Amino acid sequence: MTPRAALVSGTGFALAAGLMWGLVFVVPLLLPHYPAALLSFGRYLAFGLIALPLAWIDRARIAELTRADWREAARLALVGNLLYYLFLAAAIQRAGGPLPTMIIGTLPVVIAIASNLRDHARDGRLPWRALAPSLVLIAAGIACVNEVELERLSADTDTGADVGRYAIGALLAVAAVACWTWYPLRNADWMRAHPDRSPTAWATAQGVATLLPSALGFGLFWLWNAASGSAFAMPFGPTPERFVLLMLSIGFFASWLGTLCWNAASQRLPTTMTGQLIVFETLAALAYALALRGEPPRALTLAGAALLVAGVLLALRARPVIPHGA
Predict the structure, then answer these.
(1) What's the pLDDT tens digit per position in 275-297?
(2) What is the mean pLDDT of residues 178-188?
(3) What is the pLDDT, as a whole number, of residue 257?
(4) Nearest Cα to 26, choosing from 280, 293, 295?
(5) Exposure of 19 by Cβ count < 10 A (0-12 exposed, 13-18 middle, 19+ buried)?
(6) pTM, full prediction
(7) What residue segments make up the domains of the chain, in order of their start?
C-alpha cells in the first residue's frame, strides 16, 4: 500500500471509529437511573458475547495469536474498555454531559503530544513547529464546541447544583482520559508490530478477552446489589428492553466495529496522527447530543466544528522526520 493510500484509508477508518464511539456518550443520558458500573459491565458483557461467534467464524486467524498476544488483549480490554467506560459513564452521571465531554475532548491533543514524545523512534518525530498549529486549532475548536455546555454548567452551579459532585465528575473524566491515552498507544504498538495480522481478528480477540472480567463484574455487582438491600431491579434494571437493546447496540457498533476500524487506522498511520483523529469522536458525540436534545447548533458551535476539521486537515499535511538509520 502506498503512503498516500494508507493516509486516505487510515483517515477513513478513523472517521468510522469516531462515528461509532460517539454513541457511548449518549447512552448514560438515555439510562440515567442505571449505575455506571452496570453500564460498563453490561456493554462489555454484550461485546464479549458478540465476539464469541465472530471468533468461531474467524478461528483460523484467532488461532495465530500467542499467549503473549492474549495477555496484551486482556490488558487492553481491562484498561481501554472496562475502566475507561466505567470512569466515563460515572463522570457523565455526576457532572452531566458538558464537563466530561470537554475533558474527553482534549484527547486528540494529549495523545498527539504523548505519542510524539514516546514513539518518535518508530514513527518519526513530527516537528513541534509543524504540529503546534493543528494542536492549537483543535484545542480552540474543542473550547468552542463546548461553549454552550459550559454556559449550562455555569447556570446549574449558580442555581445551587452540587459543586462537589461536578468536581468528582471532572476527576473521573480525567481518569478516563488517562485510560484512553494509554490504550491507543499500546494498541498501536501491537498493530504496528504485527502488520500482517488482521485488525478484525484483533478486535474480536479483545472482545473475547473482555468477556470473563465483564461477566465477573456483572455477577459481583448483582451480589452486592442484593446484599446491600438496594431496590434496583437486577439483572436488567427498571427498563430492561431499553437496557439490553442499548448494550447490544454499543457492544457491536462502538466496541467491536469501532475497535476494528481503529485497529485498521492504527496499522496505517503514525500514532501521533491517529491521536489527533480521535477528534472525530468529539464531533460525533456533539452531533448525537444535539440531536438527542432536538437543538440546532449555535454559530459558535459550528465555528468550533470548523476549527476541529481544519486542525485535522492541517495535521494530515504534516510529515514526520524519520531518524537517520531508522
Answers:
(1) 778 888 878 887 887 788 787 88
(2) 91
(3) 93
(4) 293
(5) buried
(6) 0.81
(7) 3-317
Whether the upstream peptide bond of residue 240 has omega within 30° of 0, thus cis, is no
- Total number of residues shown for the chain: 326
pLDDT category at 159 given cuts 50, 70, 90 is very low
Sequence-distant (6+) residues with CB within 8 A of 314 are 133, 134, 137
Q: What is the average pLDDT value for the chain, to the nearest integer?
A: 85
- Over residues 183-198, the mean pLDDT reads 89
Omega before residue 98 within 30° of 0, cis: no
Task: Return the C-alpha cell found at 82.
Answer: 472496562
4 vs 80, residue with greater confidence: 80
Q: How far apart are CA 273 and CA 15, in angstroms?
A: 13
Q: Measure the CA–CA gap between 261 and 10, rounded to whole angstroms.
A: 9
- Residue 192's identity, in one-letter code, is R
Taken in order 236, 239, 244, 246, the sign of the CA dihedral is: negative
Rounded Cα distance, 238 and 233, in Å: 6
Rounded distance between C-alpha atoms, residue 181 and residue 111, angstroms: 6
The CA R_g of the chain, rounded to the nearest whole Å, is: 20
Question: SS3 of 159, please?
Answer: coil
Residue 48 CB contacts under 8 Å (≥ 6 apart), including other chains: 207, 208, 210, 211, 212, 214, 215
Q: Alpha helix locations (H) across 146-257?
A: 147-158, 163-193, 199-227, 240-250
Residues 139, 262: Cα–Cα separation, whole Å: 22
